[in-house]
Structures are given as structure tokens and as C-alpha cells.
């Protein structure tokens, strides 16, 4: 006999859609068996009725043959041969009638009784268990729904205890009912074979017994076959008894082991959280909007498949795609006064889902699993081992290492290539100082116990270092594409406008801005702090890169949250493994520490565009640098033009003075010829020349004296 398909009793507590789908197959099989057995029962009952009818008809025939001699026929009524022949036939038929009566009794015992027992007892038991299981499942779903609606703000211990007890009782009842239901369905696979083979065996044996009186050959032909059938039936019966014993033992063991799991929120000390998972499956409550402000929560089975999040309702054969969680973001949220809620946002920010876990353990495991999948760890050969190593590195990151050379190389980002001209004005040469700076102690970059800021604080409410304050910058709506309907925007003249979707991870003050290792160390400390303190919330913004500044813009209100002047951005780098992480150092003007100007390092997460953002910032600085060179060249050209104009004016003035002097000389010579004494005329000429000198001014006087 081939192997028997069985329902997994061990998976009854999980109650996954796959198990429900398999249960549906078994239920369909049970319904088909029931339909077929009913038809077979009717056919066998017709055989039994026919046999009874045959027995009665044979007995009636024998009786009629005996009464032949009592009949009065008009012709040939006294035929003694015919009468004696019919009497002999009557005896044979009477014996056959007795044999048919025995056959009817054997058919009733060997054929009708087993199939009737299977139909009336086993199939009805399956239907009864199915109804009980459906009631237990509905009670469990109702209890889970009431438990999910418990408020975490106004927690009533009495109500919580009642609801928890209700969940415990309903889950235990469902589990036990489901196990017995599975056991009955598994047993049905054996009983259906017995229920079909045993009646047939009884029927054939009864027929053989019937025919043995006159057909030994027929008996010899069927004896070996019927013997084999009888042996198979006995083997199936023994296998069924052994399997029933094993299933009963499994049920007893699972009832003892599953008792703590009936609680909806088990103790995390007894059941620790697994943070290295790259696959997860279980029931979650999903929020679905039904209107502008209204929403409903639906409980479905969710599971991860590679880089996809799938969901599957009860009764469905396969799951459906919910979201691509490669490079996605996940964060804890407060939603409608429900506990254990978290939000998953796709990599492009266009799709998000809010889900609610049943327990704190599931809540943390789902967030950690999605974080691991978003980093594409599942694509490696040993995903759980790599996830454990990454998480261990994050845990060890809270203790600063003595030097950068002793850190994990996997946590080092790679510096983006930036324009030489733009970097010269901000940090100078890094090639000669790289080896020296990498060996400096950690305290030379980040001061111990430096606070980390995880939220964006608008300049309206707090003066951030390095933020220029003006009446038109704080809290003003900004069009990121440079289109303004009223006053002219400060970025309209910029030839570069690039917009990126980013999420703010954190910022902290640093001591130096002379090495890209500062960005690496800040990334390490912020990621480690988020991992240790389970901080998953991130503020999403639009980062606008222009030739003048970097702006963080609220995507909903288009209000500028922060503004970073581009000349103050002195360093920028992206992570080597996780291309979504990038950061930059902003030189502030808020004060000095240890005779050094303080700086702040900002770390962001993008949609896999860290390198593009760094390239955009480098391009903006290069454009600004060349614009500054062009501005200085233009100013220098204007200054040269002004000097040339001044020299031209001086030259024309000098020529005019020379012309006046020549005219005066001619007048003096003419006066001398007309008045030889020259006394009064000379006085008149000198007086006129003095008056001309007074009109020329100091420069003219000096010029005339030199010429004279």
C-alpha cells in the first residue's frame, strides 16, 4: 500500500494559512469520501435487497414447484414425469433457497455492517468535530479581537485579566479541538480503505461460501486473491492502530509543551527575542482606511519571502504581495491607542503599511527581521550568521575603540570623490594628514559623553548652530523646484536644483572637521545608539541641493526645516556597505572649544542614493567655487577698467592745461610787442594768469609751475 497523507498535528498551535489550506484539502477529501461511501452504500444495499429478494423468490419458486401436482390443468394434468421432475427441481431450488438465505445473512454481517458503521459512526464523527472546531476557532478569533482592542493608556487590570483568561481558554480549546480533529481526519485515511475493502471482502467470501456447494473450481481461482486481500486488510488495521497510538502520544506531549504559548503576550525572559532572523511569519493586524478619517483593522497571516512581505487570508491557497521591503524603512508608531504598532515604508516612500503585532516579542522580532531584510542580508549564504555578526557589531559599538585601525572594517564608509577646487577652500589637503589623523585617539574627534540628537528641531523653536537666521528663512514655505508665485526665492538664481528623499538618523557635535573619519565615527555611534535603545522612528524630509545651501524641507507643508550654507559644509561621505547612509560635517559659528571652531556632523538615510547626494553636493561646491572665481575675475576686470578711465581723464586734463599754457604764451608775446614798457600790461596779464591759476586749482598750479 502507498504512504498515507497526514495532517501535521505539531502545527495546530501556529494555525497558519498553509495548515488551514491543507486542512481544507482533507475536508474536501472527507466530503468526497462521504459522497462516495453513500453511493457505495446504496449500491451494496441494493445488492443485499436483491439477495433477500432472490432468496424469497427462490423460496417462492420452490413452493410453487411443490404445488404443481395440486394444480388442475385442463390438458395433461396427470403427467407424473413432469410432476416428479418438478419435485426434484423443487428440492434443488429449495436447497438453493436455503443457500441464498445463508448468503443474505452473511451479506448483512460481512458487507452491510462494516459500511453502515463507517457511514453512521466515523463520517458523522468527522462532521461533529468539524462543527466543534469551527465554533472554537470563531471563539478564539473573537477573543483575540477583544484582546487587540485593549488600551495601553487606560489599562484596567480586571478587564485585562478577563480578556487574557478568555484568550487562554479559547486558544487552548481551539488547539485541543484542532488536534483531535486532525487525528480523526488522519485516521479517516485508513478507515476509508478498510470501509471499502472489508465489505467487498465479506461480499466475496459470502459468494464463495455460496458457490462452494457446486463450484470448487471457482473457489480455487478466487481463494488466493481473497487471501491476499484479507492479509492486506489486516496489515492496514495494524498500521492504523500503531499510528493512532503515536498521534495520541503526540497530542499529550504537545498539550504539556504548548501550555505557556496559549498566553497572547508570553514572558520575554522565558521566550527571548530573536534579532537575527531573516524570515518571519505570523498573524498581524493591518490597518486599512475606509474613508478620510476612518479605518478598520483586519487580522491576516503575514510572512516574508525573500525581499517581499506577503499576506494570506484564511482559505487562500497562496499569499499575495504586500510590499517590496528591500531598502525599506521600519519604525515604531503610535496608532489609534493600540499597542505594538509599527510602520513599514517602501524604498521610494510611495507605499506604507501600519501593522500591529500580538505581543512585544513578535513586535520586536518583526522590526528586527524587516531591518535585516532591508539590508539585503538574506541574499548571502549564511544570512542569520551575518545578521548576528552585524547586530553584535552594533552592540559592541557602544564601547569606543582606542583607534580607528582596530574597528570593524565592515563599518567603514567610503569617501565620495569630490572636486579638488571645492575641497581646497574647506578642508585643505587631506593626503598628507590622512595617516596621522587615522591614528589619533577617538577623543580627538568626538568628545566623550557627547549627546546625540535624533529629532530635527526647527530653527523657529531653537537656534541651531550654523543656521543663518533671517526674517524670511525660518518657517517659510519653499518650492523645491524653484517656481514661486510672489517674492523671488533665494535659490531661483542657482543653476543646480536636485531633490532627494532622506530620513534624519541623528547629529552630534564633533571636535574636528579635517578628516572623513569623523563622519565614519559619527555613523558608528549613531547607529549603535539606535540599535541599543531600539530607536526606530525617523523623520522623513526632502533634501534640496543648490549652489548656495542645503535645505531640509517638510514634504507635507513645504516648510524649510533646516538650512545649511554650502560654504560651511566641509566634509561629506557615504557608507561602503549600506549605500543609503551618508553624512556631512557643518562648520558652525556658535563658539570655540579648545581654541577650535566647533562643528556638527549630520547623518541621514536615503533611498539608496547616498552616493548621488554626495556627488550632488560636490557638484554644487564645484559650481559655487567656479562662480566665486568668475565673480572675482569680473571684479578685477571692472577695477582695471576704472583705473584706465581715470588715467584717460588725467591725460585729457593734462592736454587741456598744455593748450591753455600755449595760449597764454601767445598772449604774453603779443602784449610785449604792443607795449614795450610792459609794466601795466604785464601786470594785467599776470593778474589774469593768477585768476586762471585760481580757477585751475592746486593740481593746475603745480603743473604750471613745473612747466614754467
TrEMBL record:
It is found in: Cell projection, Ruffle; Cytoplasmic vesicle, Phagosome; Early endosome membrane; Nucleus. Residues 399-434, 463-490, 663-708 are annotated as: Disordered. Residues 500-637 form the PID domain. Its main location: other. GO terms for biological process: cellular response to growth factor stimulus; insulin receptor signaling pathway; positive regulation of biosynthetic process; positive regulation of transport. Residues 277-375 form the PH domain. One of its GO terms (cellular component) is nucleus. It is a peripheral membrane protein. Residues 417-434 have a biased composition (Polar residues). Keywords: Cell cycle, Cell projection, Coiled coil, Cytoplasm, Cytoplasmic vesicle, Endosome, Membrane, Nucleus, Phosphoprotein. Pfam families: BAR_3, PH, PID. SMART domains: PH, PTB. GO terms for molecular function: identical protein binding; protein kinase B binding. InterPro entries: AH/BAR_dom_sf, BAR_dom, DP13A/B, DP13A_BAR, PH-like_dom_sf, PH_domain, PH_DP13A/B, PTB/PI_dom. PANTHER family: ADAPTOR PROTEIN, PHOSPHOTYROSINE INTERACTION, PH DOMAIN AND LEUCINE ZIPPER-CONTAINING 2 (PTHR46415), DCC-INTERACTING PROTEIN 13-ALPHA (PTHR46415:SF3). This is DCC-interacting protein 13-alpha. The lineage of its organism: Eukaryota, Metazoa, Chordata, Craniata, Vertebrata.
